[in-house]
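[recover] target loaded
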């Protein structure tokens, strides 16, 4: 057990102990006590409470945040049995919520413009679950503490190996590959219940017994060093002597297992070995949770053996590669293993969970009136809605950008008018709803926005826009004004009457117009279920919500 504060102070005894751990002929890891740290204030209890609350949500709620692991740079949810397979013939009984460096869209663009597209891999912005109000602040605080601890560890590792303390930390910056995962390992009993549910929904193949159920299959981590915490034992590490050992669990204390990863092994030409590890499937009656922070280097950092570790007795063992390319290559291998088992029908699932189909809808209010669009074609032909557009998968634009541009262009309105609004007060997200049964076998998430216009901005909204394109814009929604107390619900989708009023209320909008003193930091969320094109059930609730700061707005052209 090493102390983070002793390492921060560079005490000789701590550096000697770290060197012993790095070069140990038996172990390949050590424990780190962060309980006395002032700068790395790890609140493990708060972070686990937020994680447990998220994992306890219904599957459809969690699946709003599905991402395709490292292919999607924005982090998100990985459902049970959809973890990549590090070993062929294994299925991981785990679900996770993955966090990346939560940069704003503006900062992400600056990274891409300055350093290139590769440098922006694995960076935010995050789509935080609004159903768990403390998840974003708790996880971000934990992530920040990991940043501090990782910086201390990288400098200390260099000093312990007789190198300049900035040897590794010089590559640890704002674009470093540093994902964090909150992981939930259900018990075997819960797994059997999950399998029964999947059988009932025809999501289990007939050859599900062809794979071994594990927590996580044996692998080494791809970055430089890993910081891991667990609530109960389950993590096994393989020492340099070939023996497997259970890592300790400190459920209520900020004491971590530190695992050596690939980049550290490559830099030292194999002197320090990346530690193989695995997680056992939970056999007890208690679920296991863990918090894991992978600490890599900047995407473009070249990872190769340092000259100090290449000798006649120890010739060069590794070729040079960027940190990003190494991570990408290893992830692709694991992804291919899973894809092959799915193709061969030798996996507990027949398909992986697809991200939801998303829509953005803009409601436009001016005084005591609301502007709606009458659809000229499609499933809503001859009915009114707000101005709605499908959000493109994998687009870097935020839903609000689609709502204020692509949606209003469908009605021939001028997106530039939104630039005249107060971005923090006059335009905001007011609702976010899940729809099931609307589109068969597809989860739909719809983001609802409202924009409140004054006379000057309203004139711009109806101003004809000029386009360099010779193609005539097709208008498929006819904008029509209604009094706020005479919204034509009878000529609108059935769900609209259930949520318009409560959503407008959080923006301070009533039948007499907008009162800025009544604006509240809330978001209305809910679920609408359709059967045979009719609304069968619905529920809504207002939750605390602070809209992200809009440093820059982007237009969809």
């Amino acid at each position: 057990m090493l102390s983070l504060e002793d390492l921060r102070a560079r005490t000789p005894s701590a550096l000697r102990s770290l060197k012993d751990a790095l070069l140990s002929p038996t172990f390949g890891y050590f424990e780190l006590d962060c309980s006395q740290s002032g700068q790395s204030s790890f609140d493990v209890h708060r972070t686990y409470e937020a994680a447990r609350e998220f994992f306890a949500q219904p599957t459809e709620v969690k699946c709003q945040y599905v991402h395709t692991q490292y292919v999607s740079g924005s982090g998100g949810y990985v459902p049970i049995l959809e973890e990549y397979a590090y070993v062929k013939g294994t299925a991981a009984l785990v679900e996770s919520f993955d966090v990346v460096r939560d940069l704003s869209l503006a900062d992400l663009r600056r990274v891409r413009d300055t350093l290139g597209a590769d440098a922006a891999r694995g960076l935010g912005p995050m789509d935080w679950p609004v159903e768990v109000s403390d998840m974003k602040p708790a996880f971000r605080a934990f992530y920040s503490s990991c940043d501090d601890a990782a910086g201390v560890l990288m400098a200390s590792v260099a000093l312990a190996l007789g190198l300049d303390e900035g040897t590794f930390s010089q590559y640890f910056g704002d674009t470093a590959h540093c994902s964090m995962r909150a992981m939930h390992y259900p018990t075997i009993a819960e797994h059997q219940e999950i399998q029964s549910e999947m059988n009932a929904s025809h999501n289990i193949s007939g050859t599900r017994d062809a794979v071994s159920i594990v927590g996580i299959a044996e692998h080494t981590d791809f970055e430089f060093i890993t910081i891991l915490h667990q609530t109960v034992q389950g993590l096994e590490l393989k020492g340099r002597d070939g023996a497997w050992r259970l890592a300790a669990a400190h459920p209520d204390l900020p004491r971590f297992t530190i695992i050596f990863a690939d980049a550290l092994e490559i830099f030292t030409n194999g002197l320090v070995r990346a530690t193989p590890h695995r997680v056992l499937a939970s056999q007890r009656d208690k679920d296991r949770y863990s918090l894991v922070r992978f600490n890599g280097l900047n995407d473009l950092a070249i990872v190769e053996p340092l000259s100090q570790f290449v000798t006649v007795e120890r010739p060069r063992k590794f070729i040079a590669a960027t940190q990003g390319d190494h991570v990408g290559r290893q992830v692709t291998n694991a992804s291919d293993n899973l894809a092959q088992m799915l193709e061969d029908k030798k996996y507990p699932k027949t398909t992986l969970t697809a991200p939801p189909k998303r829509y953005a809808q803009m409601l436009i209010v001016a005084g005591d009136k609301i502007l709606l669009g009458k659809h000229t074609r499609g499933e809503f032909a001859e009915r009114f809605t707000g101005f709605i557009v499908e959000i493109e998968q994998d687009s870097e634009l935020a839903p609000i950008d689609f709502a204020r541009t692509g949606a209003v262009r469908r009605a021939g309105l001028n997106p530039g008018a939104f630039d005249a609004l107060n971005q923090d007060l006059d335009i905001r997200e007011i609702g976010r709803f899940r729809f099931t049964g609307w589109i068969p076998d597809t989860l739909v998430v719809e983001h609802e926005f409202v924009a409140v216009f004054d006379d000057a901005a309203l004139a711009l909204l109806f101003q004809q826009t000029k386009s360099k394109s010779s193609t005539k814009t097709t208008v498929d929604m006819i904008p029509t004004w209604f009094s706020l107390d005479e919204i034509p619900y009878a000529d609108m989708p059935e769900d609209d009457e259930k949520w318009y009023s409560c959503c407008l209320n959080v923006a301070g909008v009533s039948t007499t117009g907008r009162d800025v003193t009544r604006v509240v930091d809330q978001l209305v969320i809910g679920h609408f279920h359709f059967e045979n094109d009719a609304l069968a059930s619905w529920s809504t609730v207002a939750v605390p919500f602070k809209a992200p700061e809009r440093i820059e707005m982007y237009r969809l052209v």
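[recover] notes: The first strand starts at residue 2 and ends at 3.
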